[in-house]
Design a protein that fits this description.
The chain is α+β, with helices and mostly antiparallel strands and 142 residues long. The chain has two domains: 5-103, no CATH class; 106-142, no CATH class. Helices cover 25% and strands 27% of the residues. It has helices at residues 76-88, 116-121, 125-141; strands at 13-20, 23-31, 37-43, 52-59, 62-64, 99-102. It has a six-stranded antiparallel sheet with strand order 5-4-3-2-1-6. A hairpin with a 2-residue loop joins strand 4 and strand 5 (62-64). The longest helix is centred in the C-terminal third of the chain and has 17 residues, at 125-141. The chain is elongated. The model has no long low-confidence stretch (mean pLDDT 84). The structure holds zinc ion. Zinc ion binds next to loops.
C-alpha cells in the first residue's frame, strides 16, 4: 500500500491521525477489492470505533472525491487529508503546522490511541491517570 504497509493491520487498514493548526482528524484508509484503490474515511464525533464516514478514494496514487463521498471538497476534514496526502505517500513534506501520527496502541491496555498527545506519550488518558499516578505514589511512598 502506498501508506507504509508496516502501519496497516491485518485487515489492511491504516489509521492515521493528522494534526493541523486547528486541531486534529482521525482517518481510516482501507484496502478495497480493486487493486491500487483505497477508501478514505474520517471520524466524525468522539466514538473511537464507529462513526467513520467515507470521504473519497485513493486511485492510481491520487486522492479524489467520488460520487459516494459524504463530504464536499470544501470541508476541512477533506482539505486536511488532501493537503497531507503527498506526505503520506512519501512524495512531499507536510504543510506548516501539520503532523501525522500512525495510530498505535496503548502500552498498558492495548486500546487504540487517537489523539496526537496520547500517541506521543504512548498511552491513553485513563491509563495515564491509573498507572502513572500509582507509580508516582509508589515512588514517593518508598
Ligand atoms: Zn490504555
Amino acid at each position: 500500500m502506498i501508506l507504509n504497509r508496516v502501519h496497516s493491520d491485518r485487515n489492511g487498514i491504516v489509521m492515521v491521525t493528522i494534526g493541523h493548526p486547528g486541531g486534529y482528524y482521525v482517518y481510516k484508509v482501507k484496502d478495497c477489492a480493486y487493486p491500487g484503490v483505497y477508501y478514505v474515511l474520517v471520524r466524525i464525533g468522539a466514538d473511537t470505533y464507529k462513526n467513520y464516514i467515507y470521504i473519497g478514494a485513493i486511485v492510481g496514487g491520487f486522492f479524489k472525491l467520488t460520487r459516494m463521498s459524504k463530504l464536499r471538497s470544501s470541508r476541512p476534514e477533506v482539505k486536511v487529508f488532501a493537503r497531507a496526502f503527498g506526505y503520506l505517500c512519501g512524495k512531499s513534506s507536510l504543510p506548516e503546522g501539520f503532523n501525522v501520527h500512525y495510530r498505535t496502541r496503548c502500552k498498558y491496555c492495548g486500546k487504540r490511541l487517537t489523539t496526537p498527545k496520547s500517541i506521543k506519550l504512548g498511552y491513553g488518558p485513563i491509563c495515564r491517570k491509573r498507572y502513572i499516578h500509582s507509580n508516582e505514589r509508589r515512588i514517593t511512598n518508598g
